[in-house]
Amino acid sequence: MKKVLLNLALCLFAISAWAQNSISGKVLDANTGEPLIGASVWTEKQGRGAVSDENGNFTITKLKDGEIQLRVSYVGFETLQKSLIVPLAGELRLQLNPTDLLSEEFIVSATRASATTPTTFQTIDKAELAERNLGQDIPILLNFTPSVVTNSDAGAGIGYTSMSIRGSDQSRINVTVNGIPMNDAESHGVFYVNMPDFASSVDNIQIQRGVGTSTNGAATFGASLNIQTDTRKDEPYAEVSNSAGSFNSWKHTIKAGTGLLNNRFAVDARLSKITSDGYVDRAFSDLKSFFVSGGYYGENHVVKLNIFSGQEQTYQAWYGLPESKLEDDRTFNYYTYDNETDNYQQDHYQLIYTGKIGSNWKTNAALHYTYGRGYYEQYREDDDFASYGLPDVAIGGETFSSTDIIRRRWLDNDFFGGIASVNYISDDGKWDVILGGGVNRYDGDHFGEIIWARIAGETNIRDRYYDNNAVKDDRNIYLKATHEISPGLNLFGDLQVRGINYTFFGVNDDQRIVDGNETYTFFNPKFGLSYEQSNGQVWYASVAVANREPKRSDFTDNPITEIPRPERLNNIEAGVRAQKGRFNYNANFYYMGYKDQLILTGQINDVGAYIRENVANSYRAGIELSGNYQVSKAFTVGGNLTLSQNKIKEFTEYVDDYSTEEFQQEAFTYENTDIAFSPNTIASAIVEYKPIDNLSLNWMSKYVGKQYLDNSANDSRSLDSFFTNDFRVSYQVQPRFFKSLELNLMVNNIFNELYEPNGYTFSYFVPGESQKELVTENYYYPMAGTNFMLGLNLKF
Fold first, then answer.
1. N or C: which end of the chain has fewer CB within 10 A?
2. Which of 237, 260, 264, 241 is nearest to 252 (CA)?
3. Do 147 and 294 fall within a single domain?
4. Residue 386, SS3?
5. Which residues fall within 8 angstroms of residue 175, CB to CB, at 6 or more apart?
């Protein structure tokens, strides 16, 4: 690693020493005078270029004497072309005029928060995502945003990854792409492994913490991620990105676009492949994806067709690391069968329209279809025939009731529907009203196949030992309005009605018949106030309600007569945010009070599967602080801090008791305990240093406090706090024949911290010498020690 860093430093020094003439300047909006961040500035004949920074400034070096043709482009603005003679005296002021083409912004604005919306949010732009995008999944790229904790089954951020926000896991975080729901209709989760390298096709992500504004799909029960894919690029481009690093990890991405053809049409495409052996033994990932987008762009109308797909094969690391292996064998993987893999493909189709009607109205509508199919394969040693609904097998006078089996558990589903919204803004700007909603259907088949058995009996290959179907209809309509009561003072209201009908029938994987139909209607109101001061501060406060139906396992694992009740969340947010020159900050308080939150208690159903139960009262309350300060042209510091309390007022835990001849469970009642996987402290810090133009050095730190593996607040069932540090080097040059060449080195966990951000636990009683003894077994998902990724990105 020392040699790599030394050679990199020497290369950067040599490149910087070649400079000849240079030009510098600022790119501005001709109407407002505001700087344009990320504008492309390119010299046609000499093949040199730059991108404007956060202040609109740019510098192009190594230019030869003589005439140059300068081209400046920025999304939503007309391209500027200008002839110059080098060397120049002084700096340039380049002003771009807004284009008459309709912006794509409204595609996501109906489900987003704006500057005056009284809720807590943060928007991460494409440039910020690209800095870390060397192959790891979206949750890992968002690791340094407020209140976020991330984890990875394979330990290296590639493959199965997930995140929690304010302690709310992935199944409680609503995710939309261009306003279209992405959460699985049954499990409520989002599986980013099915969207490999999706970040390379993302323009920006807005994270709303808490209930936030009304959106489509699953209820927001802790946070939401509102993702907008790449927007129109007016100039043709091509991009090749390659990364390589620890654990034989590789990422290859090719992107290209036509730019604006005939001032109306554009096509963009991406092709990606990511592979990794993983930190955990055999936990490899083989991921492929593509993204294609074609659009028509008019003065008043935009029509886009997006098609994207992800295909994954990952070796399973779901079992976790037993506590006994934690000190001396952190890469241990319980699975040894060579094809113990997960295999899945998901194809997405989005047809999107947005339009402007007169000066007051905008509309947005989209049709979508997702087709997912795949299975995970498992080797099962000495499994009972009865578990598969099979009779015992008699051979040569001997009866066998179990055998070794290889099985595949399949999911084959279709998800389709439509969303729409219309936006009215009054002439005086005092009213901003949005009416929207969506209708979606999920149709999923669940079935299991036996593909091999050591003692087969009367079975045939691909015999299905369970088969069931589920259909879920989800409908919602919302009305949002912002009214300026007086200068700077805004009243916000948001009313949503959501209806669900869920039908399921067939034989479950535990051989039980699961037939049922459940219908829910939820009313989710939100109200708030915001006050924008002349100094740029925005003060806000809001109260919001969200209701949420149980997920699939709550229906299929519980006796049908004892379906859990829906959950309810009452959310209060209050805070202040500001952008003042070189300093921006956000400080907020939140209270999230749950009624009937569903948790694991150790209670089992009639076939021994653990089920979730409602607890009457629980809450999350905390303070979140975040900010960023540009100390000088070279130094920028930023960070965030969350301090919280996450409590269940009372619940009963059930512990299996094997100390007697007849199995039973013993009950324990707890009061005011911590909610599982909800650390009281989460903090991040980032320091950026730019010693020379185009060279950026970043130090990133992350602290996560102690977490409990269950809801008993028992120290013997917990995850230790951890503190990690990452280091990133980014360098960009504009060599001849390229728009830019970017070199990125990311060293993760530079001090080799041994930590586990996720795991699970279970306890049981066994006979003891004098009395029964409690045994607790903990399992962990360890993260990799020091590791790196090195990336090279060429833009044409």
1. N
2. 241
3. no
4. helix
5. 181, 182, 183, 190, 217, 224, 225, 227
